[in-house]
Amino acid sequence: MVDLNQVKQATKQGLSELLDQAHLQAGDIFVLGLSTSEVQGEQIGNDSSIEIGRAIVKTILDTLRPLGIHLAVQGCQHINRALVVERAVAKEHGLEQVMVYPQIHAGGAGQIAAFENFEDPIEVEHIQAQAGMDIGDTAIGMQVKFVQVPVRTSVKTIGAAHTTYLSSRPKYIGGPRAKYSWDPFNQREEGGQ
């Protein structure tokens, strides 16, 4: 059996290191992909655990809520990787609701835990989150906005599940004269006019 205290601690540590590098702001969306089967050392989708789902989702919410960052929890392929979000978040970001409710083998334990912990949960089909955490190789890349930036943390696994962390950045545009850091216009360059 997996030690839930170790799972919570590893989740908190990995999330903390990601947030230190991702520079999220209040109102941003954070996506969680979670295979509780993988956390237990089993193949994804074969041994879901509501206790692990609850522990991880609650740990993440306890960190994100005070920061004003919104959590979206991705479901499995059996519900087309739909995401649980708060209804207010869906409205704020213009996300279309889809009709499905998670169960342990379709959506998964993480989504059920989100439904239990959110005030007014609904499912949406797609989002563009600013960052995310993938516990168990659930493929969250489609939910993090372009351009995605891998983030390295000291937490490589949670339980037995491999972890991946993503942040994002704005696209660089322009040609050879473009600049990518602010240099106030009214400052003269040395030797110039």
TrEMBL record:
<dbReference type="Pfam" id="PF04260">
    <property type="entry name" value="DUF436"/>
</dbReference>
<comment type="similarity">
    <text>Belongs to the UPF0340 family.</text>
</comment>
<dbReference type="InterPro" id="IPR028345">
    <property type="entry name" value="Antibiotic_NAT-like"/>
</dbReference>
<protein>
    <recommendedName>
        <fullName>UPF0340 protein PS396_01555</fullName>
    </recommendedName>
</protein>
<dbReference type="InterPro" id="IPR006340">
    <property type="entry name" value="DUF436"/>
</dbReference>
